[in-house]
Specification:
By secondary structure, the protein is α/β, with parallel strands linked by helices. Helix content is 30%, strand content 13%. The chain is built from 6 helices and 5 strands; from the N terminus they run βαβααβαβαβα. A 5-stranded parallel sheet has the order 3-2-1-4-5. The N and C termini lie far apart (34 Å).
Length: 183
């Protein structure tokens, strides 16, 4: 914990998997032309922003390690996502991704790491860097490995199976009386 920050002052966050939660999972999405928002995803992010949560994307991206696309493609796509969210008054605070794979065809990504879900490395890094309180935070993912990573980081996990992320979030998220949220 950062010096001078008390547990009650630590931030709360929502960790979101990307493929299958923010966008339709079409496998190795790396370009805006391949990206289709999950229904209610942009509204869910705006809702979470308004509720005072940090919004942090944590996503395995083995397509990079497999050579299907480059890290620069991933970053360009996320710049585009940021622009799309900005157009509706929403934003993502941080994005963490894991391009590693133990048997990756590209040697520089052939790593058994702590960041690839179901391991908790991405969440733990965000918790450290953003002074996040795991007990007041949660993750939304579409696979058991997402929830396993959350549990290993001391964060509650919710399994999203569609169809509308805003409705899913709106009916499950504890809101503080200190925050006004537009519906």
């Amino acid at each position: 914990m950062a010096e001078g920050i008390q547990p009650s002052e630590r931030r709360r966050a929502v960790f979101l998997d990307r493929d299958g939660v923010l966008n339709v999972d079409r496998g190795f999405v790396a370009k805006p032309d391949d990206f289709e928002w999950v229904r209610g995803a942009r509204e869910a992010v705006r809702f979470l922003n308004g509720a005072g949560y940090l919004v942090v994307v944590v996503t395995n991206q083995s397509g990079i390690g497999r050579g299907f696309h480059a890290e620069s493609d991933f970053r360009s796509l996320h710049n585009w996502i940021d622009g799309q969210l900005e157009n509706c008054g929403a934003y993502i605070d941080a994005v963490y991704f894991c391009p590693h794979l133990p048997d990756a065809p590209l040697a520089e990504y052939r790593v058994t790491c702590e960041c690839r879900k179901p391991r908790p490395g991405m969440l733990q890094q965000a918790i450290r860097e953003w002074d996040i309180d795991p007990a007041q935070s949660f993750l939304i993912g579409d696979r058991d490995r997402d929830c396993a990573a959350a549990a290993a980081a001391g964060v509650a996990g919710y399994l999203f199976d569609g169809p509308d992320l805003f409705e899913f979030v709106r009916t499950r998220i504890p809101l503080s009386s200190n925050h006004f949220v537009e519906g």
